[in-house]
Design a protein that fits this description.
30 helices; two-stranded antiparallel ribbon; disordered N terminus; globular; mainly alpha
């Protein structure tokens, strides 16, 4: 059937036979499916070919060093950033209004300056080591050029917020002698600052860019191979088969599909761009408003960064910071993520019930058996990745073999087999999707380097404790506000590195278990993607849905209520995170409290359970959430009684009203 004919078909006809005769959703047939809005250029001609070649070389380099020949940090990281800066200046225009056309002379100059100044460090690595890291005049010149280029690249890719924040921290190094009280320090000279930021592993080439050069790039590349092999389509069809028939089916499909893809991809905005082009038009056709469809997709994609195994590569960084096995971090994140998705799923269900919506007829949906038989083998590389990680293999080695596994396993069936063109496209997509994260990590290096050099991190920690006056709840509120503020417009990985440096230590010092404290900051850093005024994931969804940007953002904030409350729940009930070593009764109580919180949050979000809730009943749900956070047994029993009372009262009220209307 021609593409034009497929687009004109009705929603109930969006199926076609697959190889097993069970039928799968033809995603290309969905009217309105298109590329998500982009802030990058559409390169043409020789520039497009140059970008293609350099992107493939970049992926080959990272793949080679991950699986065959690891390089020292001060060789790997500068080469990684040289690739990213070169590609970034080709792709991102000076102004966002200049998307049309190929790179200009200024872009080319910045691209060459960035790649040369970064590559210079890798080329002269041994010479710098032999002279003890003391800089020459050439080093200072190259370092100055490098710092300017990185900040300009950050401005183009991430906006002014990160640039201003980085500049403030670097400026603090110079003005220390004039700062009042505990904020004062002796000050540092220009040469010392350049040496810290450019020639050490405590500045730009520190932990942040090290993570980007290894974990982030490899796992983004793994996600790109999954996408090109058709795994995104498999996840979407499996979600349709599981939930498409229920009330509000396409919205629930968006939650499930985005969650499954997000746990590998890790980037909220990128996940919305890849799955939202299919799920958002479907939700709108079912009857959901465009802003609500955009919000559902944004919240579902936001949750992907909280969901193991990858968590935007932050699980591996967290393991390094906390000096604990990766498996402990991944297992600790499971229950909070399940509560998050449970709350979002239930709220969408209540919205569909409230509006009287129905799902798609079962005979128009794919069947689980057909989807699995046709495309189920595509999920095997994910199981391979998880298995290798749990067996203790390094993250890089696991990602390396799992990426090879995508190519090999996709070849088991002719309709999913990846050709050379698909492999090349996956390599280019992996490089392209890493650019903004890599540059953000480089800019974050200015902040981390300034904190390490000045010792301001300890001041930040003591300030939170002092303002909280030793009380945990005020400290949590301050930590949440600081994490949210520091995260606006930044990728999840970069956000976590900042908050782990500045915020998490204050909670640990107040007695919160380290893993719980880091997860708390990670959640509150991650919610910036659905929190106006910089709700990037919601804004990408709004562009696809042709909906109001701010309305989509605030709706996403309401739908994602769990992301704001669940972190407080697991701080007061650490058994939700440390469940492997928790007492059985404490774990049962924590799970029960978590489930009650899910019901309360969904009811509050929609002001509806079995029927519309009045203000007094909504107040009871709010009080119940507060009581659930209290560790005392009596408080939890009271909360359970209140929630179950509201639940039964509403259910019986609906049944009685139905009988009266029947009579």
């Amino acid at each position: 059937m021609a593409r034009e004919d497929r687009k004109s078909r009705k929603p109930e006809e969006w199926t076609r036979p697959d190889l097993e005769g069970e039928g799968i959703i033809d995603l290309d047939a969905i009217q309105g499916a298109r590329e998500a809005p982009s802030e990058t250029r559409e390169l043409t001609g020789l520039w497009s070919k140059l970008f293609f070649v350099v992107a493939i070389l970049s992926s080959v380099f990272h793949f080679y060093t991950a699986g065959y020949r690891p390089l020292p940090a001060m060789e790997q990281r500068p080469v990684h950033l040289a690739f990213m800066l070169f590609l970034g200046f080709l792709l991102y225009p000076t102004l966002r209004s200049e998307k049309a056309g190929n790179p200009r002379l200024l872009d080319i100059a910045f691209a060459l300056a960035g790649s040369v100044s970064s590559g210079y460090l890798a080329w002269n690595y041994l010479d710098i080591v032999m002279r003890g890291g003391f800089p020459t005049q050439t080093d200072i010149v190259m370092g100055t050029i490098f710092c300017i280029v990185v900040l300009e690249a950050a401005r183009r890719t991430m906006g002014m917020f990160l640039v201003v924040l980085s500049a403030l921290f670097v400026g603090y190094l110079f003005v220390g002698p004039w700062m009042p009280g505990v904020m004062g320090h002796g000050g540092f000279g220009f040469e010392r600052v350049i040496r810290q930021m450019y020639m050490s592993t405590e500045g730009v080439f520190g932990v942040a860019i090290g993570v980007s050069a290894t974990y982030v790039y490899l796992f983004v590349l793994f996600g790109a191979f999954l996408q090109k092999s058709g795994t995104t389509s498999f996840f979407t069809n499996l979600a349709f088969a599981a939930a498409g028939h229920s009330p509000g089916g396409p919205a629930k499909v968006g939650i499930i599909a985005s969650g499954m893809m997000g746990m590998i991809q890790g980037s909220s905005a990128a996940n919305v761009a890849s799955t939202g082009v299919f799920t958002i038009p479907l939700m709108k056709r079912l009857g959901f408003k465009g802003y609500f469809a955009a919000a559902v997709e944004a919240v579902a994609s936001c949750g992907g960064q909280f969901l193991p195994p990858i968590m935007g590569a932050s699980a591996f960084i967290m393991a390094e910071y906390l000096q604990m096995p990766y498996s402990q971090v991944a297992l600790g994140a499971i229950l909070p993520a399940a509560l998050y998705y449970g709350a979002v799923y239930l709220q969408v269900h209540l919205r569909a019930r409230k509006l009287g919506m129905e799902g798609i007829a079962r005979d128009r949906l794919p069947r689980v058996k057909g989807v699995i038989l046709s495309h189920g083998h595509l999920v095997l590389p994910i199981f391979l990745l998880i298995g290798m990680l749990m067996m203790g293999f390094t993250a890089l080695f696991s990602a390396f073999f799992s990426t090879i596994g995508v190519v090999v396993i996709s070849a088991l069936r002719s309709h999913t087999r990846m050709g050379l063109a698909d492999i090349a496209d996956a390599m280019v997509l992996g490089a392209r999707n890493t650019i903004s994260t890599a540059i953000a990590c480089a800019a974050v290096g200015f902040i981390v380097g300034a904190v390490a050099l000045s010792g301001v991190g300890l001041i930040f920690t003591q300030s939170i404790i002092g303002l909280a006056d030793g009380s945990l709840l005020p400290a949590l509120l301050l930590a949440a506000a600081a994490s949210l503020f520091l995260s606006f417009g930044l990728p999840t990985t970069s956000v976590y590195i900042i908050t782990a440096t500045l915020v998490a230590p204050s909670l640990v010092e107040m007695g919160v278990p380290p893993l719980v404290a880091h997860l708390f900051c990670y959640y509150w850093g991650g919610v910036s993607s659905i929190t106006p005024p910089v709700a990037l994931a919601a804004y990408v969804g709004a562009g696809i849905a042709n909906a109001s940007v701010m309305k989509s953002g605030f709706t996403a904030m309401r739908l994602g209520m769990a992301a704001y409350i669940v972190p407080f729940i697991f701080v007061y009930w650490p058994s939700l995170v440390l469940w492997q070593e928790a007492e059985p009764l404490r774990l049962i109580a924590a799970l029960g409290g978590g489930l009650l919180t899910v019901v309360c949050m969904a009811g509050l979000g929609e002001r509806y359970l079995f029927r519309a809730l009045t203000i007094p009943k909504l107040s009871v749900l709010v009080v119940s959430i507060v009581l659930i956070m209290h560790p005392a047994v009596w408080a939890n029993v009271m909360a359970a009684a209140m929630v179950l009372g509201i639940f039964m009262f509403e259910y019986l009220g609906v049944r009685v009203a139905a009988r009266k209307s029947a009579v």
